[in-house]
Write a structure and sequence with these properties.
Blueprint (H helix, E strand, L loop, with lengths): L7 H14 L4 H21 L1 H12 L9 H29 L1 H25 L2 H33 L5 H29 L3 H4 L1 H15 L14 H20 L14 H23 L13 H18 L1 H16 L7 H8 L1 H21 L2 H20 L6 H28 L6 H32 L2 H11 L4 H8 L3 H9 L4 H5 L2 H6 L2 H8 L3 H33 L13
Helix pairs in contact: 2-6, 2-7, 2-9, 3-7, 4-5, 4-6, 4-10, 4-18, 5-6, 5-9, 6-7, 6-18, 7-14, 7-15, 7-17, 10-11, 10-18, 12-17, 12-18, 12-25, 13-14, 13-21, 13-25, 15-17, 16-17, 16-25, 18-25, 19-20, 19-25
Length: 578
């Protein structure tokens, strides 16, 4: 294992040489362009969540019909999947052939995919149109992977050590903040014209691509003599892919279960994914030039930073997803908002989370350059821990002002953690490994996002399924639905109702056949299809499941806070080693 000590002289020499050849303004050019890239990549990762109802209506597809649910899952998560699978390999290739070169290629891929996505919305409809969008989203996600994998490394190269926290903080805020803003942007554009959801990234992509090719400079020295660890890359990519795909399909019902964790295919996929990652670790310990230097985890700041990153990502990633379901499925309908209007309203109600994040992120990044990451990361996760407990204490039909205050507080906590932790991770590794380190960091963020959504949604579904069949049956019978029909409907998986609410559909329209509704007296039909019937039936079972989710998030945030507290004092590879 290479030593992590005694590199101060080489480190200082590299920093001084870099400063001599740099235009003083270049660092700001690098910051602005990589921030634009990170923001667009993040916005497109979440822009479809709120806009999905308009997109599927525009395509003429009902994603909740049996057999088409996979279209919904792949359209939402396919972008994240391809990024998660490829970013570490991209980071390694960037260290070999040039970070700016591959970053520029990523912007080009992202832009071309965005153009094709927008054009395809006018050419193909129906299920084929949805599948075309999924394929092009995968290519767009690949381009986003190039941007995400290299942005932090380019900034680390461009900024001196005493300014990296601020620079990486702004970049990190644009990435995580972009995923929050993406929901709002998607909702607003879909309300105007769903085609605009895919058009919005085209002009920004063109500007960013041209700007990157003209302005960015290669500061690090690519090492083309290093060999690509093919077997390690394949083992890692296969392991990550199998885990993510298995968890996504675990969201779908299997047999009599409301979720698919007992599905043999899901179990086999998870087992093979874990075995593949174990093989990756073995391969990396044996090959001469591994894809990722596992000895970096012996650096305390690096290990603690990545562990807390994964845990905080799991706590944060599914939170917005769960809160949107809470708002769209329960709170907004209870307050008279039609299901069709709930997606945009839910996005607006999440704005305090974004504001808190955008306020705290750059400030904590700037201060961490001076005081180190430990204090800000630890306090940020403690704030999130308390925020999860406060949310769990809310009644299902809460007072909105308390909800807004809590999510603003949690946005502040997430912002306090994100920027300093990124800077600490990037500062803790040798310069020649910054590309692959940036890729590893991005992979953990993407994995956390998928893990969080699947784990939290499964917990919520299991919690709801304990009482929903009974109350749904009794509620339908009370509205003159026959006992046999009510029994059949009550056996439908609750995930269908939750997905319907997420998509802005009235769950009762999805779960109850039209001929049953048409056969009822007008008064009973209006009650069942009204905004109060479904949320009133589900509210008690929903809040029980939601509290399980929130307590799980609180536990993740608490452990992340402990890891952050144990990261040690401020550490910069090669400089703190003096």
């Amino acid at each position: 294992m290479p030593s992590v000590k005694g590199n101060a002289g080489a480190y200082d020499k590299l920093e001084r040489a870099k400063e001599r050849k740099l235009d003083p303004n270049y660092k700001w050019i690098a910051l602005s362009n990589t921030t634009l890239g990170a923001m667009m990549a993040a916005i497109d990762s979440s822009i479809l969540i709120i806009s999905l109802p308009a997109i599927f209506n525009g395509l003429g597809v009902n994603p909740l019909v049996s057999g088409d649910t996979s279209l919904l899952l792949w359209l939402v998560l396919g972008y994240t999947i391809i990024s998660a699978v490829t970013v570490v390999t991209i980071g390694r290739l960037s260290d070999m052939f040039g970070r700016v070169k591959l970053y520029n290629a990523g912007f080009l891929i992202f832009t071309l995919a965005s153009i094709l996505l927008w054009i395809s919305t006018y050419l193909i409809g129906g299920t084929q149109g949805a599948m075309m969008l999924i394929v092009l989203r995968l290519f767009q996600g690949l381009g986003g992977g190039f941007l995400i994998a290299n942005g932090a490394a380019i900034l680390t190269d461009a900024f001196p050590e005493n300014e990296r926290g601020m620079a990486l903080g702004i970049n990190q805020i644009s990435a995580i903040g972009g995923s929050l803003v993406g929901m709002l942007v998607g909702g607003v554009l879909a309300a105007i014209d769903w085609h605009l959801v895919f058009l919005v990234s085209v002009p920004v992509g063109i500007i960013g691509t041209v700007w990157a090719y003209v302005a960015l400079k290669e500061l690090a020295s690519p090492n083309k003599e290093r060999k690509l660890d093919i077997y390690g890359n394949l083992a890692f990519a296969l392991g990550v892919f199998l885990l993510i795909i298995s968890m996504i399909y675990a969201l779908q019902p299997y047999g009599t279960s409301s979720v698919g964790w007992s599905n043999p295919i899901v179990i086999a996929g998870i087992a093979l994914g874990i075995l593949s990652l174990v093989a990756f670790v073995i391969i990396e310990s044996k090959v001469v030039d591994p894809m990722f230097r596992l000895w970096l985890f012996k650096i305390r700041a690096f290990a603690a930073g990545n562990i807390s990153l994964l845990l905080s990502g799991i706590a944060r990633g599914g939170l917005q997803f769960m809160l949107i379901i809470w708002l769209q499925g329960i709170w907004l309908p209870l307050h008279g908002i039609s299901f069709e209007q709930t997606p945009l309203r839910a996005a607006v109600d999440m704005i305090p989370l974004i504001i808190g994040f955008l306020i705290a992120g750059p400030l904590s990044g700037y201060l961490s350059d001076r005081y180190g990451a430990r204090l800000f990361c630890t306090v940020g996760m403690i704030i999130n821990f308390v925020g999860f407990l406060f949310l769990a204490a809310l009644p299902v039909n809460f007072d909105m002002i308390y909800f807004e205050i809590i999510i603003f507080m949690m946005g502040v906590g997430q912002g306090m953690f994100a920027a300093p932790n990124t800077a600490a991770i990037m500062n803790s590794v040798p310069p020649q490994y910054r590309g692959v380190t940036s890729g590893m960091r991005a992979t953990l963020m993407n994995l956390a996002q998928v893990f969080s959504i699947t784990i939290f949604f499964s917990l919520l579904t299991l919690g709801v399924s304990t009482t929903l069949p009974t109350v749904l049956h009794s509620g339908l019978v009370a509205q003159n639905v026959s006992n046999a029909t009510a029994t059949q409907i009550s056996k439908l998986p609750p995930s269908a109702a939750l997905f319907a609410a997420l998509l802005g559909y009235n769950p009762m329209k999805i779960m109850i056949p039209a001929n049953v509704i048409n056969a009822l007296p007008a008064h009973n039909a209006n009650v069942i299809l009204g905004t109060m019937f479904f949320p009133t039936l589900i509210e008690n079972s929903f809040i029980n499941g939601m509290r399980i989710v929130l307590y799980t998030g609180a536990l993740m945030a608490l452990v992340a806070a402990i890891c952050s507290a144990l990261r040690g004092k401020k550490y910069v590879y090669g400089k703190t080693d003096k």
